[in-house]
Amino acid sequence: MQAYKNVYSEAQQDPEGFWLEQARRLNWFKTPKVAAQVKKNGLADWFPDGEVNISYLALDAQIEAGRGEQVALYYDSPVTQSKASYTFNQLREQVACFAHVLKQQGVEKGDRVIIYLPMIPQAAIAMLACARIGAIHSVVFGGFAAHELAVRIDDAAPKLIITASCGIEGTKVLPYKPIVDKALAEAIYKPRTIVYQREQCQAEMQEGQDTDWERALTTASPVEAVPLPATHPLYILYTSGTTGKPKGVVRDHGGYAVALNFSMNYVYGLKPGEIFFTASDVGWVVGHSYIVYGPLLFGCSSVLYEGKPVNTPDAGAFWRIVQDYKVSAIFSAPTAFRAIKKEDPEGEFMQHYNLSSLKRIYMAGERLDPATYEWATELTDLPVYDHWWQTESGWPMCANPVGIGAVKAKPGSSAFPVPGYEINVLDPLGKSLRSKEEGAICVRLPLPPGCLTTVWGDEQRLHSSYLSAFPGYYCSGDGGYIDEQGYVFIMGRTDDVINVAGHRLSTGEMEEILAAHKDVAECAVVAQPDELKGELPVGFVILKNASTIDHEQLQQELIQSIRAEIGAIACLKTLHVVPRLPKTRSGKILRRLIRQVLQGDDVAVPSTIDDPSSIDAIKKTMR
Ligand code: COA
Ligand code: AMP
Predict the structure, then answer these.
(1) Is residue 495 classed as helix, strand or coil in its secondary structure?
(2) How far is the CA of 59 from the centre of ligand 2 (A)?
(3) Which residues contact 200 (CB under 8 A, 6 or more apart)?
(4) Contact status, residue 52 vs residue 40, Cβ threshold 8 Å
(5) Where are the alpha helices (DSSP H) in 344-453?
């Protein structure tokens, strides 16, 4: 505990010195002398005089350090029955040649490239190739439907889209190219496309619009990584906010590299040469930070897994990966472990594998519920760590300081603030709350390196989403408390963002889609607790007076439109037609109250409610 306190206070008292010291551990083209320049909005530009390239750090610097023949990336795909591995030498060759392909397509420094790929090595190669030439990638999760892709195309205005012929979900082959074509038909921007053809499904190519990945590579030769200002944008990663328009979180090269490098040991306790298995998707921040950039730039090998925790083929899948690649640490979402627990509560599948390499288990993406924590701990007899972070932070904000000496974990808590993050719990007026009092979880500005630098093309949204609620603080959107010993407990979102199977989704966006139906007068979408997925969205709709539509037909149409617009991952499967919704006298729908009904909690009826009988109407529908 003392070691933690020392490091934390060092970062707090001398942030410049602390982060410059961390920066020195990386190979810069130009080593920074200045740690941070704080901007008017309170955020900092990290290492403003440094020059670096994260693709160089992840590949070339590792080779220079003698790791050329070490495996950088293991690809394991039970859904295609295939495996592959790439040494740092091989991965650099692939990345450097693909960077040439990008240049041949006219992609230059600062241009955006959308990557819409399943969990195949080409996703990591495309990301690293963009970074190599200073292009800004924006990976869109393969589970998003065409409309979501179109919204991102129009916001990022990319020069190119990189996709594959298909993704594979369990036994389903999902063609991607028709989704991209549909998105391009909807979008205002019409970038060209590179397509990676997979043997499970061939995409139809359009002359002049689509380029075949493999064919383009036949004329490519490796290109070097270009030196970039540390503040140069590396990527835009869209995340759900409270409206239908996702926010493009922007991250830099230099600050991100320094933060990830620090976290690989401090949070994950890893050493170069060890194997890290992050079971997530490159479409999420976890995939960016701990499947691709973090492990590679720290000299670890990363496992890129195209499969599910269960059913590909069974609940032993994660344990097989641990055995096959001698994994030291595994990281996934609690929902994945709940899925394993459901199929294999006694860990019988686990018994078939040698887990002697595995030192610890990490979970994030949603709160690690105490029941899953206890189960995983007892089953594996290993330390299990919850840690808290967001797309916006890019790396953990609260974690157990494993690398400098783990502290005793408390079920339900993501442990302590990571050095660089000063976490405060504030009341609605911005007053700091005492221990155990629940309020808004905020981080004092400036944020440490690695965090968002802006919202793409929308400084105003940066301000309104994160900086305006509590001046001087970054508002995380999560609520929770800190106990007397300083353990942080993150209890859930305070806004209209929900978490379905570790996927962050906006109920506001779902409401916009429901409200667009010709028969719907008003609607609300709220989260209902779910044993497996954490939360599931439930919709409530009020029909227009003149509507005569059959309720069942309406429900099917609405469920289908959510799948078509957002994607199947939204999992909106329950919809109720209600005569009215609980509202304040000023007309604001009381979603919190509906949530309480869904959770079976005592309903705290506010004095501002317009019509108290609306609650009974909801209860009646639920019966
Ligand atoms: N591409 C296309 N479709 C996808 C997809 C992808 N990458 N991922 C999910 N989907 C689809 C599924 O096929 C399913 O479609 P269906 O309704 O037609 O069957 C739907 O979206 C819901 O999928 P999912 O949420 O994965 O539910 P599931 O019941 O198939 O699996 C879990 C449940 C818990 C095993 C799974 O959600 C999981 O592994 N979650 C972990 C998520 C994670 O790692 N998050 C990252 C945070 S660190
Ligand atoms: P994302 O941006 O998709 O990574 O989702 C971030 C959100 O997931 C956070 O704002 C939290 O609501 C939730 N979250 C992630 N990790 C945790 C955790 N360890 N404990 C509680 N909530 C978490």
Answers:
(1) coil
(2) 30
(3) 80, 165, 166, 168, 173
(4) no
(5) 370-380
User: CB neighbours of 592 closer than 8 A, spacing ≥ 6?
Assistant: none
Write out pLDDT tens, residues 186-204. Answer: 999 999 999 999 999 999 9
Strand partners, 583: 589
Amino acid at 200: Q
pLDDT at 205: 97
Summarize the confidence of residues 492-515 as an average pLDDT. Answer: 93
pLDDT greater than 80 at residue 622: no
Tokens standing for residue 415: 């442990």
pTM of the predicted structure, to 2 decimals: 0.96
Query: Rounded CA gap, 117 and 425, in Å?
Result: 39
Which of 74-88, 118-132, 236-250 comes out lowest in average pLDDT?
A: 236-250
Distance CA 142, CA 159 (A): 19
pLDDT (0 to 100) of residue 143 = 93
Distance CA 440, CA 432 (A): 10
Does 439 contact ligand 1 (Cβ within 6 A)? no
What superfamily does domain 2-307+387-480 belong to in CATH? ANL, N-terminal domain (3.40.50.12780)
Q: Which ranges of 190-305 would DSSP assign to H, the alpha helix?
A: 213-217, 254-266, 285-287, 294-297
When the pLDDT of each residue in the chain is averaged and rounded to a whole number, the result is 96
Asked whether the predicted pLDDT for residue 242 surpasses 90, the reply is no
How far is Cα 258 from Cα 236, in angstroms, rounded to an integer? 18
Quote the ligand 2 centre to 486 CA distance (angstroms).
19
- Helices marked H in 516-550: none
Which residue, 533, 76, 571, is CA-closest to 330?
76
Domain residue extents for the chain = 2-307+387-480, 501-622
Average pLDDT of span 472-499: 96
Quick check: CB of 517 below 6 Å from ligand 1?
Answer: no
pLDDT at 34 over 80: yes
Please count the other Cβ atoms lying within 10 Å of the Cβ belonging to residue 571: 20
Measure CA 329 to chain center.
19
Place of tokens 């096959």: 324
Query: pLDDT above 90 covers what percent of the chain?
Result: 92
pLDDT at 244 over 80: no
Task: Report the C-alpha gap between 476 and 241 in whole angstroms.
Answer: 11
Unique residue bearing structure tokens 């979970």: 363
Name the residue with the closest Cα to ligand 2, atom 9: 390
* Alpha carbon distance 123, 162 (integer Å): 9
Which atom of ligand 2 is nearest to 504's Cα? Answer: 3
| Mean pLDDT of the region 368-374 | 96
Of all ligands present, the nearest one to the C-alpha of 527 is 2
**What's the CA gap between 543 and 518, in Å, rounded?**
9
Residue 612 one-letter amino acid: P
**Lowest-pLDDT range, 293-302, 371-380, 515-524, 580-589?**
580-589
Q: Provide the greatest CA pair distance for the chain.
A: 73
Residues 69-82: pLDDT tens digits? Answer: 999 999 999 999 99
Please tell me the number of Cα atoms within 13 Å of 25 on its side-chain side.
18
Q: Which CATH architecture has domain 501-622?
A: 2-Layer Sandwich (3.30)
